Amino acid sequence: MLQENHPVICKILNLFFQEDLTEGSVSLLRTGHVSCASKTTNYIQTPLTISPDRDPAMASSLRSLVLDDSRYQECFKLFLQRSTEHQCMQDFIHKELPAILASVGNGKAHLNVIGVGSGAGEIDLEILSELHSKHPGASVDNEVVEPSAQQLHKYKALVAQTPTLDYITFNWNRMTATEFEEHWRASETTKEADFIHMIQMLYYVNDPEATVRFFQSLLSVNGKLLVILVSGKSGWGKLWQTYKNQLCHTDISQCVTTGDIQSFLDSEGVRYQSFELPSQMDITECFSQGDEKGELLLDFLTEVLDFSKTAPPELRAGVLELLRHPDCSVETNGRVMFNNNLGVIVLDRLT
What we know:
By secondary structure, this protein is of the alpha/beta class.
């Protein structure tokens, strides 16, 4: 059973339950974070016959799940129980990330860090702990960018009760990523960042590519920008690619994957490192009509409130067909396991 007070789970929860339904202040996580073991599965490829209707009116008739906080929390808790994501997020932070962090700073005695969409800070503190282990003699200036006053309050409380953080200076920025960019530009500061992390937040900016460009421009020599999003190779990526017009219909979030960001970077000739973080999510009950847990999972997957009851029959049938297709899931021991992978992109300073 996953623990909701686990540091990674708290970070994910923080991304969701913000105060205002505005850019950067609600993070409706469409995937979980990640599973550890990567297994090669041989799929039997069959023709995908879904031909979704692209009528925007269909999307406008559906209500976003995020508008019903009680229902959303219920869906999200079930997602945590059914997915394997948080173990691999932990593995990435504690196994892969340290080598990345070791390369920043170039021996400096002071390091500048920016966390964009930090929530209540649990993940931030784990990252800072790994940074400290690689640069034990360095002091750290940590810019926290988070639009929710409630989450910032929790972050401050966490810092107050966590020992051995005297090497960190925390600067609290209650603002969205866009507001932070505006503030930064207006200040005309020459300060540079040694490490910036943007975990599951690019869904909630108007222009993800421009946001990546801006934060990359803040990097110092040997600085690193860490971006984590849904993988373009995941079932989420296929679901969004097929039903974007019907399901991604709110101003709160948009469908963007690491594949989209990589395509942009490739077109610009920008070099980067990438990691695939395998994860699965058991969605078997989605295919049992009327099953309560299945309906909760369908709501979470589609981000639509009461999807099975309110979606037009052809949309509901098409989504279910796609979810069971090898492009999205694999059947193992009678269970339908959805591809819940995340992707990681690590960027250097622009040269």
